[in-house]
Amino acid sequence: MRPYIYITRKLPDSVIKEMQQKFDVGMWDHEDVPVPKEVLLLEARKADALMTMLSDAINETVLTAGKNLKVVANLAVGFDNIDVKTACREGIAICNTPDVLTDTTADLTFGLLMAAARRIVEAAEVVKEGNWKSWSPLLLAGHDIHHKTIGIVGMGKIGEAVAKRAKGFEMNILYHNRTRKPEVEQQLGAVYASFEELVGKSDYIVCLTPLTEETKNMFTREVFNQMKRSAIFINASRGPVVDEQALYEALAAGEISGAGLDVFEKEPINANHPLLQLPNVVALPHIGSSSVETRTAMMQLCIDNIEAVLEGNKPKTLVNKEWKPLVRV
Ligand code: GLV
Ligand code: GLV
């Protein structure tokens, strides 16, 4: 029998066709609706491999639903939606899609920073809604980006790629990370700072840290309070790293001057959410890695990883590095 792969969201025919050469493929056939839990559970019971989205909760129930599951390939670099501990115990390989999305995500992150700083979205709406009365000296005046200080929280590969862009804008670069990055300090002139120091000194605070028990709710009311009143907060990692109520209060009280958000505590965020009523918030629907080129590369990497595991090889981008295939009898 050919191995069975279940994909939790509709993918392009070309991708499915390639997989069908070697495997039986099932797919949740909707682009905009996540797979319901019950369907996922039924499919997980018979699947040898799952290709999943960051919006799917791959918990113990899913991972232990069947006896055949050998690999979960998540179409994202982040894997906070997956119970990796249980996967390790069950001998299931967990794969993500790092590297191929680094520059694309850094482009979006920097774009979000620029949009928030220069009020690009607000300004574009003024023109399209017919509210542009005349050129005027302080019309939609934003904040400079060049020569300002950027503070990057989470200096992984994406953080580094954002720092490269910041260097091109002649910004001062601070960063905070669990471990210091001497190469980044040398090559880009980035300066390591404690979290408190970074928060207090930066004009742009850019959050790129993965969501873990340690980083959950890292940005509290107190943290926003320590920022400059002119500071702009950018989040392109995961929503739950931020206390969203605290962010709203800080913005509404003028304790910080703006925010650019690609991620939210609950996605999709409700259009009535107080944050979205503020003119100084630029909000995007979690599209950090969403270029056609990169999403295609991410899908290909998921396929390669699934193939590798099902053929008894080590996948290219394994999350649980200690994984060894279990011989199941
Ligand atoms: C997107 O947020 C990802 O983790 O790839
Ligand atoms: C963001 O998702 C990161 O991994 O830095």
Overall tally of domains: 2
What structural class should be given to the helix and strand makeup?
A: alpha/beta
Count every helix, treating DSSP H or I runs of 4 or more residues as helices. Answer: 12
Given the C-alpha coordinates, what overall shape results?
Answer: globular
Point out poorly predicted stretches: none
Query: What about the largest sheet?
Result: 7 strands, parallel
CATH superfamily of the largest domain: NAD(P)-binding Rossmann-like Domain
> If you average the pLDDT, what whole number results?
97
Give the CATH class of the largest domain.
Alpha Beta
Succession of helices and strands: EHEHEHEHEHHEHEHEHEHEHEEH
Strand order of the largest sheet: 8-7-6-9-10-11-12
> Which oligomeric form is depicted?
single chain
| Percent helix range | 25-40%
Could you explain how this protein is built, in words?
With 329 residues, the chain is α/β, with parallel strands linked by helices. The chain folds into 2 domains: 4-98 and 291-310, Rossmann fold (3-Layer(aba) Sandwich); 102-283, Rossmann fold. The protein is 35% helix and 14% strand. It has helices at 13-20, 37-46, 60-63, 84-90, 102-118, 120-128, 157-168, 182-188, 195-201, 221-226, 244-252, 292-310; strands at 4-7, 24-27, 49-52, 71-74, 93-95, 149-153, 172-176, 191-192, 204-207, 232-235, 258-261, 281-283. Strands 8-7-6-9-10-11-12 form a 7-stranded parallel sheet, with helices on both faces. The chain has a 5-stranded parallel sheet with strand order 2-1-3-4-5, with helices on both faces. α5 packs across α7. The chain is globular. The two termini are 16 Å apart. 41% of the residues are buried. The mean pLDDT is 97. The chain binds glyoxylic acid (2 copies). Residues 6-320 form the D-isomer specific 2-hydroxyacid dehydrogenase catalytic domain. Keywords: Oxidoreductase. Residues 110-288 form the D-isomer specific 2-hydroxyacid dehydrogenase NAD-binding domain. Belongs to the D-isomer specific 2-hydroxyacid dehydrogenase family. Pfam families: 2-Hacid_dh, 2-Hacid_dh_C.
